[in-house]
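Sample intake sheet
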Amino acid sequence: MNKDQYIRAGLDIGSVSAKLAVLVPEALAEEKFGQNNHPVFVEKKIVSAKDRLYICNPVKVLGDPVKAAKRLISYLEIFTNETFSIQVTGSQGKLIAELLQCPYVNEFRAIGRGVAEIVPDAKTILEIGGDKSRFIRISYDRGNDKMSVLDYNRNGECAAGTGSFIDQQAERLNYTISDIGQLVLGANSTANIAGRCSVFAKSDMIHAQQRGYSPPAIFKGLCEAVVRNYKGTVLHGKELEPKIVFIGGVAANEGVVQAIYDIFQLTADELIVPDCYMHMGALGSLMLKNGPAFTLAQVMNSLELNGDHTKAFSGSPALNTLKVRFENKKKLVSKRGGDSSIRAYLGLDVGSVSTNLVLLDEDGFVLDEIYTRTEGKPVQVIEREFNKWRDKWGAAVEIIGVGSTGSGRELIGELVGADAVHDEITAHKIGACTLAERLFNEKVDTIFEIGGQDSKYISIEDGIVVDFTMNEACAAGTGSFLEEQALKMGISIKDEFAGLAFSSARPIKMGERCTVFMEKDVTALLQQGHRKSDIAAGLAYAVVHNYINRVVRGRKIGDKIYFQGGTAYNRAVASAFATVLGKEIIVPPHNGVIGAIGAALLAKEKIELLNVSTRFRGFDLSKVKFSMRNITCNGCTNRCDVQECTVDGEKTYWGDKCSERFRKKFKFPGRAEIPDLVKIYNDLLIKETTAPKTGAKIGIPRSMTFYDRFPFWRTFFETLGAEIILTEKTNKEIIRKGRELSIAEPCFPIIVAHGHFAELLHSDIDFIFTPNIVSSETEIPEKESWYCPWGQTVPYVIKNTLVDQVDRDKMLIPVIRFRNGKEYIKKSLRPVARKLGAPAKWSDKAVDAAYDAQQKFGNELKRYGIETLAKLNREKQKAVVLIGRPYNLYDSGVNLNIPAKLRKYYGINIVPMDFLPDDNIDVRPFHENMFWNYGRRILQAAIFIGRNKNLSAIYITNFKCGPDSYIKHFVSDCIGSPYLTLQFDDHSNDAGIMTRCEAFLASKNLLSLENLLKEKKTARAFV
């Protein structure tokens, strides 16, 4: 057979799946296949008519690319006596190409050539695969059979929004990937899901399910988030020229396809999903190269003799259980099982991955417990487990109190009629301390709790929480991460993982990177041929290092360490903790349901204190009239998607950011005793003036330095007779526009700034004012006072995204260095005034007036602050000080209006740091060279808080803030006591944030027994 009669095979070995395409000469195809369909190969139509194209179903790589390649090659046994040329592409294809000594084809060229073969008039290719996303512009000359790649881009290191992530979420919610498309097409609402980070998206999905969103609504939100993420991080504003071809494994998801049509506003003529959407790389690789000839036996032999391709690596000590106490024999079991009627307390812990239930007798001993998976359906799971207990315990148990905790505590608490609804920190502390004292006569001083999505550290002294923290936003190193990696390697997390890890003599050191990056590391290690046992043990260590370095972060670790939560069932992780810390780790009995035990004990405490009857609605939830309805709040431009939950006629609302139109119940009866300083700040910031407005219209984005410098700019322009046009408050539409305009992946406030700018482009204005503010005034002249690089350069970044020269000419971007003094500012602003038709003399007077206005604004803040602090001291009241950058503290669209919720629902006195009289505090004892302007102000506030013991701190920051990522480490030194960090990104649900707030307030005794006593009086008043 001559070379033109070879069978040409193309292999595409990706990180998730492997694909095979073969091009068979016409005569041979007739001989082997005839007119009958082959059980493995399916024929596809192509441009080339002389040969026939066949593809087969992809196979999962499962961390073993060689095994996947062998499986695909084995399908070619029908051609045992024929000769092949083989070409390989894909992220894991280089290893196979090396083993076979055949050509490796660049993925972009392979994909482009494959698409051209199926869709000759294609211009744009959109690909979302297992962990890769690509954009490719091609040109195909059919006459010369020449394909050219004109432009391309791909996702970065982060695999957010790719196919493997969607697969994982489908698996977690107990669906197959093929189910998602039809679910989404049938959805009647959409959950808002953050799409920039897989871990954040997972958090949003979990919080949405705990708020009662249906799986179709959650998956629809996820599909839209994937497309928005692709648009923002891969396309970066690139033009989509039809015909547009969507390929990759995600193209099978009809929900994502529909989201592409909707978000890009495409028609069916402009976007097509070809028949071979998963095999374009394999097809293109065989079309572009023509490698050496092989027989099937030679190919299989090369793959069999692949040898050991592992590289030398640094290892960790082998795992052992010498310092781990697995206390699974002695349990807190009730002896009342034979009683005819048992008065009992019910505890519920509704988490992201697991749902846990316990029954305690009146003495607090366990009658029964359930540990099951949430499956994304907390209501249905609780109903199912209640039915089991109704049959088992219905006649024997009288429920006299119910407590709920976990991320789904509020929704489920409403549904079942819980008497006490508490955060997980408090519940786990109560449960662990009770077990330790009753069973082992010991006092636990440290709790490590790692659940499916959250990690918690709790430090206890004399039964009181003296410090705690949770993973801020990222869920790297939690239980779901381990489960996903086990699935990727094709092993069972429950039955195989720990055994494999213990069999490793040299666990791989994997560090403590982001979950998504760690997943890439696992892929690379498997590709290199490392043993799964070494990787499993390495992952156990990675979870521990991640927890210690990113959660505990130098906090005190005692000598009685209780390791609890679902991940504590994994003996390998417990052993890794003991090895790393060199301390005994105790895995207590009931470790998976300790949160539920604590919830039941808290309900017992409250019922006994208030002497009231339980609200429990019974185990038969079919008798409870329960419904969920999705509505849109039109109270402001944010137009929040709100869920109305009705239980036996009583309505509660979830999802509103503003909390004005649809108010929830007050969680605690206390009320804030001081004025609403956040509102006062915003009122003073946007204070109206009576200056004439006859000149140019100046658009100013309501973002970034607007939140502390607007009085200056308003006065400057209005003194010159100009009219100020502000954008609306940050809302969903502004955020969407910002995400689409951003050409990089900055922090969330910068994305929001892009959105506010985009809003002004379509306004009736003459100019858009976006100054490049480089530095600020400082009380320590010898130290710098920079604004962050993104804050400085965002005007130029935005300008370079604009195509229309008219829009570019509207931008006013003076370079402002406030640090250099008033005369420098006057010189800097004269060119701006000249554009408005004002001479230098007028401009200088406007600058003088602007300085006066800014000074007056600051003085008013300090006056309110001094009065407020005096009132707090006089009345012996406590308060929480909000520290952070002004655009994080005062933009409710960025911070989910958390400051207002703390004040309204918890009755907390809130003092933003700008009201503190801390201007002259020297931060150098804590940081010798704090050159960031906001960093200095934050540390000054932290020192002030440390000097006033009635003040506690909540640090509001944002994901990807470089300066804050290290500034916050100095805050604890300045305060001298624990504080809470809230990290925001493109989130839409506040459940995780409010859990952290509630736990922090409880640890600071701001939600104390005194509040319960007030509640007791309130309860009696209604009896």
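Comment: Residues 487 and 711 are 56 Å apart (CA to CA). Residues 1014-1023 have pLDDT under 50 and may be disordered.
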